[in-house]
Amino acid sequence: MLLATLEYLREYRTYAHIAASYGIAESNMYRTIKWVEDTLVQDGTFSLPGRKALLKSDTEIEVVLIDVTETPIERPKRGSENTIPARKSGTP
Question: Which tens digit of pLDDT belongs to each residue from 18-41?
């Protein structure tokens, strides 16, 4: 159970992939990983820093912004006179 949880946390594999590796159902893998995580958190020796602790660190964070705005595609209007003449006459 612990090994499956470590694979999930370390490799970011999906429950389905890990479950297939161990030959069990995806729902069972989810419950197993959830149980291990909850047990480790309740123990007290295993803890993660909160969001505020991460924000207070001296680590410089680099941000990259990507412009993904949509632009309309220019297409010929249906029925316009800009169509190919061979198409109108029916000859290839």
Answer: 999 999 999 999 999 889 888 887
Q: Rounded CA gap, 6 and 19, in Å? A: 13
Neighbours of 18 (CB within 10 A): 21
50 in Cβ contact with 39 (< 8 Å): no
pTM for the model stands at: 0.49
CA distances to 9, 48, 65, 71 from 68, rounded to whole Å, are 31, 34, 9, 9
Contact (CB, 8 A) for 36 and 68:
no
Say yes or no to pLDDT of 92 above 80.
no
Instruction: From 35, 30, 32, select the one nearest 16 (Cα to Cα).
Output: 30
CA distance 65 to 24: 41
* HSE, side-chain direction, 13 A CA sphere, residue 78: 0
